[in-house]
Write a structure and sequence with these properties.
326 residues, alpha/beta, Rossmann fold, UDP-galactose 4-epimerase, domain 1, three-stranded parallel beta sheet, 12 helices
Length: 326
Amino acid sequence: MLRETKRILVTGALGQIGSELTLELRKIYGAENVIATDIVNKPTVEMSDSGPFAVMDVLSTTSIDNIVSKYKIDTIYHMAVILSAIGEKNPQMAWNVNMNGSINILEAGIKYEMCRIIIPSSIAVWGNGVPLENTPQACCLKPTTMYGVTKVCGELLADYYVQRFGLDVRGLRYPGIISHATLPGGGTTDYAVAIYYEAIDKGKYTCFVNAETRLPMMYMPDAINSTIQLANADFSNLKHHGDYNLSAMSFSVAELAESIKKYIPNFEITYEPDYRQAIADSWPNSIDDSSARKEWGWKHSWDLDAMTKDMLKNLRTRHELGKLYK
């Protein structure tokens, strides 16, 4: 039986996904019932004006206890994470934040008898040797980044806490996420966000992976909807827990550039692949997310051209207001 969500905590609420997820949750559950937290004390005006914000360190059990007990939290969306590109520059930090932070959140879930905890995973759990086309739900997990390693461990932890403690933990493997609301946050798939910003600002972009690189991608509205939909799914229908494949669209960088050229004909792109090319090459081209579609009714809404049109429209407005990179 699905227990009713009343008081929600979002960690990493100032990040790419966390920032938009928080605002959407506040629309659904009421602003006062969704507590935004981050280790950085620099909330946007929209974030601070729309509901409660608190500084919280996921590596500190005291910090977590203080916030959870103060606001009587029953559900946590754990979005605080060190992403792949940044994680490769500091693997120890990635392990510490991604693993110990997640364990602290899971332990808080037990201590405070929470309804559920959502801990997203990523396509980074896969690596060399994985079927690149239509990658199945159950597949070899041999990540090539510390971020991917921590996400595999996070999936296993989710399943362990479900089986060992009866804690309701859920997670999905995000593809690359594209958004006009927040700047790139240090992930390998950031080229698919930065290209739109540079198209509006400069009319050209130098990409750090090659033209043929093809990865699964998703527009932010679909990412937010899928996360909330999984959180509200009937637990009895879920055959998986922390590792749902999630997909919407797959395209190459060249195809992305051509989509932009439909709206900005003079847009130019060049390629200077760096260390992130090897990371991208180890990830799937497309994903089989039939388990998510069968078990909790997942269905995406956005395709490439619809996303491009909406991205450029919103970024052009911000550019005219002088707020493109703010």
